[in-house]
Amino acid sequence: MNKKQMLIGLMVAFATLLIFSLFASKLPDSLERLAESRHFSGKEKVVANALLADYSLPGLKNKKLALASAAIAGAVIAFLLSYWLAFLLKRKNKN
Amino acid sequence: MHIPDGFLSDKVCAATWIISAAGMGYYLKKTALTLKDKMIPLMGVMSAFIFVAQMLNFPVFGGTSGHLLGAALAAILLGPYAAAIVLTCVLVIQCLLFQDGGITALGANILNMALLATLSGYAVYRLILAVVKKPSATLFAAMFAAWVSVVIASFSCALELALSQTAPAKIVFTAMVGMHSLTGLIEAAITSLVVSFILKVRPDVLYKP
Description:
The structure holds two protein chains of two kinds. Chain A has three helices and no strands. The model of chain A has no long low-confidence stretch (mean pLDDT 88). The longest helix of chain A is centred in the C-terminal third of the chain and has 32 residues, at 63-94. Chain A has a domain at 50-95. By secondary structure, chain A is mainly α. Chain A is extended and about 50 Å long. By secondary structure, chain B is mainly alpha-helical. Chain B has a single domain (10-205), classed as Arp2/3 complex 21 kDa subunit ARPC3 (Orthogonal Bundle), CATH 1.10.1760. Chain B has a two-stranded antiparallel sheet with strand order 1-2. In chain B, strand 1 (57-61) and strand 2 (64-67) form a beta hairpin. The longest helix of chain B has 33 residues, at 169-201. The radius of gyration of chain B is 16 Å and the shape is globular. Chain B starts with 9 loop residues before the first helix and ends in an 8-residue tail after the last helix. The mean pLDDT of chain B is 95. At the A-B interface, helix 1, helix 2 and helix 3 of A face helix 1, helix 2, strand 1, strand 2 and helix 3 of B.
């Protein structure tokens, strides 16, 4: 498998994952469910308001579009952060 | 499994922050020593995929959903140290940008999902490969490692909630570990699928200690 094929493969995989994530289940997860049943949901506090809280974009009304944009933004930032950290660690090792 | 702010006691928050910070400090050093050039882009790609995979909630049982964790898969591809760094990057972004998981609880979330899940998954994977010396063992090892990683993370999450006296221990453990032993089955299936695909197209990508 050459580099180009690899890149196309990754893009297709990513797009598939992204489409699936748009139809993700909205049911509460086990921790949220537990908090509801044991009545401690109210204990949840917001220490600081995040920019893209709950995977939405401020000003974007279409929820699916907002979710997709949030997913892509998050994925790109995650890629860059890990890549940058790995790059720094490698450079540190060479010195 | 992302714990929000307010569910954990101050003591548990402080303790888990200290353990995670110390753990990550050690892991960063270890990664700097063992990192290979080809692993740098892979760390980026894994972060992006795990970020989206963790958004993908699927119904599990009784009106509850769960999502993929990706910790065992990351550990199988990158080794335990780099995998923990990848998971930590994802958790930090989820917390700071998307308010998924609390800031005071970030130490606990890193401990559960970045440190313990990758470590337990990797340990199980290596142990099975060491005992069963057949190439076909890889898929079974990946499957079992994925299941264990999810269950261990949920166990540690339950322990933190119980120690914080958020809810009675028996109920917390039953709910969290019980539900995640089911979620873990999906994690196991997807992890082994991805590993089998990688074994076919790019077997060199799998981490070799």
